[in-house]
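To: structure subgroup
Subject: Chain for Friday's discussion

All,

I'm putting the inputs and outputs inline so they're searchable in the archive.
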Amino acid sequence: MRVVIMGCGRVGARLAGLLDTDGHSVTILDVNSYSFRRLSADFKGTALVGNGIDEEVLKKAGLEGADVFLSLTQGDNRNIMAAQIAKHIFNVPRVICRIYDPLREELYRTLGLETISPTVVFAAMLKEKLEG
């Protein structure tokens, strides 16, 4: 599977490493090259400096032939915008977007984006832990 990940924070770097270990072709991009320090020394994928809402950067990342695009930055707006570009301009078959704001997450899910809200997921996990 060819995967492009936008955002090399803790989650993006961890996911990139897991997918790379499993033999997938992974490109991870971030606006800050210092973020790539989070990747393991044996990461075989591609780390690319650039903004994931820039179409030329996305082309360079190989989005045209990607099977999956994940937008995992800290910014809901950038994640949403990049996900829309991946889905509607590059026609990536599967696009997953992290959105912290539960109201936005719900709205964009109804508009057809595959979303995940760490806020909602973690709150549910905590509630389950407290009650169980």
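Points worth raising on Friday:
The longest strand covers residues 25-30.
The chain has five helices and six strands.

D.
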